[in-house]
Amino acid sequence: MSDITLPRNNIKITTGALVCEDSKLRGDITIGKDTIVHPMATIIAESAPIIIGENCLIEEQAKIVYRVPFDRVEDKDNIPPLIIGSFNVFEVGCHVEAAKIGDSNVFESKCFVGNKVSVSNGCTIGAGCQLTNEQELKENIIVYGEKCQMREGLSKPLPQYSQMETLMKILPSYHHIKKPTQKTK
Amino acid sequence: MSAGFLDIDCVKYACTCGLLKTLQQLYFCRYCSELRCTFCVSHEVDSHFCGKCCENLPSAEARVKKNRCVNCFICPSCRQELSTRAASKQPANPEESKATKRTYYLSCLCCRWSSRDIGLPDQTAATGSWPKRESIHSNRIQEIVSMYKGLQEKEKLDKEFFKKKQKEKIISYTDKTGITAAALRKRIGLPEDKPILKPKNAVKIVTPSKADENIDDFDEEVLTKSINLLEITSIDQRLLQPDVQPKEISNIFPIQKILSIKRSLRCRRCEHNVSKPEYNPNSIKFKIQLFAYYHIPEVRIVTVEPLRAGQACELILKFTNPTQHQTTVSFLPFDSPIEVKEAIPEEGAISQEDSLEELDKSSLTPSKKKSSSGTKLMSLVDTHITLTTSRSSARALSPRSIAESINCTVDIPSSTFILPPRDDAAEYDDFNEVHNIQDDKKLVVWRKSNKAYIKLVVTPNEDMPIDTTVTTGFTMSHLYTNTIASVADNKKPQKFNHNMRVILKLGKSVGLN
User: Fold this and answer.
1) For position B216, what pLDDT does the model report?
2) Which of A9, A89, B60, B494 is the most interior residue, by most CB within 10 Å?
3) Which positions in chain B touch A151 (Cβ < 8 Å)?
């Protein structure tokens, strides 16, 4: 890992997004409209850019790290960016290194998702679950419990509009906010 | 018992019954002045309650409801409690009624299972209206249960009939003297003896089930079709519903939550409670809690030198006195016999008197042990006999041997040390503590308030291989102050030495340096 030098910080924040000054953002990161990044959240684009979609919620102590995918160690220069879809929730203390993240996923508190996992849409990774093996989570998969049992959900987890609305109001009055750099397309 | 931060199993106390437990798992019966563990007390169910809604149910009602809560459900997928969620549903055509209808469904916050997953329609009421799934075997089971209940009743009646018949055969004195029993009954004014009837054979025998001759053909698809693990239930989920045992995940059904109990523990010897919770399910307090932790000095290992076979090494233990009375602790060899009660001579007379008084009391008040038949005089004698025999038998009851082999000897110090009473305010005392306790400097390393650090010398056995767990033990004798008698009779608190065995696991032995 020492031979990888972090690319220069290039943070692009779309108008409407709420990114707190106290969050730790490293590398080339694009944050979509209406996404909330709490203070003390960490996003590190180590190998390639991270593009975060709309209406995502990234809570305190959450860590999103994009390392070099395990199958692409050979050509480090040609790594595609990590595109995180919309309506994803990264709860307190989660650690996500997944190589692919779709829409409407929930990463519950203190869960760990390794870089060999690719997450599709509507998945829930339960609190404290550790996914490290190479696997692809199909749509609406719910991982729960000590032994990481899996089941298929009926529908996608609902977006938490009311929670996000409240945060949009409250966070700016107590934290410094990073200014948006890009206008909505 | 739960594993708390105090519940460290390197120091264990031998219960009176011989089992090894940590101090936190033991009870102390103040009336017998002995250690009791969960295996040597009788457990009694105090109350049934639901752990979720905290509803209290009388035991009869709980039995009728099959020990399950009516309103609370657990998740058939992950056993967590299901919570009721409200959803608003727009009516089909808006003109009919403008108000949105509230509907409710059950949802699990752990695995996100919901009652909608199995197609259960949403309910209009939050509680009570959830459909119950009847087992197809419930009628049959009911039939069989009632049959056996009938059989049991019949057997009982038959036995009584047989006994009465036996009685008839014996010629009583009254018969010999010419006064018949019937005549006597008439004279006394008792109703006439009913003729003994043979109980009717009224038990309805259930038709026994038969093994079916036709067995379904073996489904070869089981071998050929690939399994989708997301569609079939796990063993755990299947056995959670033993009456249905669903194979597919779509057939699981919310399960009524099983009731919890509050139980009180009772010493088997003296029938006093050692633990009794408060009746209210919301309360976590106890009415009676005679935990050993409040009565017996706590032993903790502070440091131990590297343990080498055959070499003496230093062990420092911390002793804490939890009681409000000063105590003196002395050490005895591990195998020294432990007497049930060791009264100090001057108090001996009192204790004997006590026991006599107790006997008198028990003979005056109707005792539980009194047999239902027999005259009152007989029962008096009976209680005397049962009491004395039960006492002697209880005393004679030898505890099982302690299942732990000692492979390390302790040099038992001849001197004793004093532990001052516990003082909650001592921690906040800024002044330097002055205590005029004359300590054996070889034994007591350091002391503070009700704690003392004791140095012992232990020697692991000669022939011990490297990396074996070194276990040592001694008998701790401490002066116990029993305040029960003083409260009841205004006497001086009884003091006596209470002995118990303590076993220490010191760690692994290491090689020679």
Assistant:
1) 85
2) A89
3) 77, 111, 113, 230, 249
> Does residue A2 form part of some domain?
no
Cβ B471 vs Cβ B404: under 8 Å: yes
Alpha helices by DSSP H, listed for B240-375, are 345-364
Residues 6+ apart with CB under 8 A from B150: B202, B203, B204
In degrees, rounded to 5, the angle at the alpha carbon of residue A72 between the alpha carbons of residues A70 and A75 is 145
B116 at A interface, C-beta within 8 A = yes
Q: Is residue B367 part of a domain?
A: yes
Q: For the complex shown, is ipTM > 0.90? A: no
Please state, for a pLDDT cut of 70, what percent of chain B lies above it: 75
> Which residue from B minimizes the CA distance to A152?
B230
Q: What is the per-residue burial (b if ≥16 Cβ within 10 Å, else e) of B73-89? A: bbbbbbbebbebbeeee
Q: What is the CATH number of the domain that holds B457?
A: 2.60.40.10
- Residue in this structure with the two tokens 């019937």, named with its chain if needed: B182
Contact between chains at A126 and B111 (C-beta distance less than 8 A): yes
10 Å Cβ neighbour count for B240? 21
Intervals of chain B under pLDDT 50: 1-2, 341-396
**Chain B interface includes A153 (CB < 8 A):** yes
Looking at the partner chain, which of B110, B114, B230 has a beta carbon nearest the beta carbon of A150?
Answer: B230
| Same domain flag for B503 and B371 | no
Closest to A6 measured CA to CA, from A73, A83, A67: A67
Domain contains B38: no
Residue of chain A whose alpha carbon sits nearest to that of B115: A154
Per-residue pLDDT tens over the stretch B213-243: 888 888 888 888 888 888 889 999 999 988 8
Cβ burial B284-298 (10 Å sphere, 16+ → b, else e): eeeeeebbbbebbbb
Looking at the 3D structure of chain A, how many domains does it have?
1
Contact status, residue B11 vs residue B296, Cβ threshold 8 Å:
no
Single-letter amino acid code for the residue at A31:
I
Distance (Å, whole) CA A72 – CA A83: 17
Structure tokens at B93: 């055509």
Q: What is residue A125's DSSP assignment?
A: E
- Residue A100 resides in a domain: yes
Domain that holds residue B317: 297-334+406-429+437-513
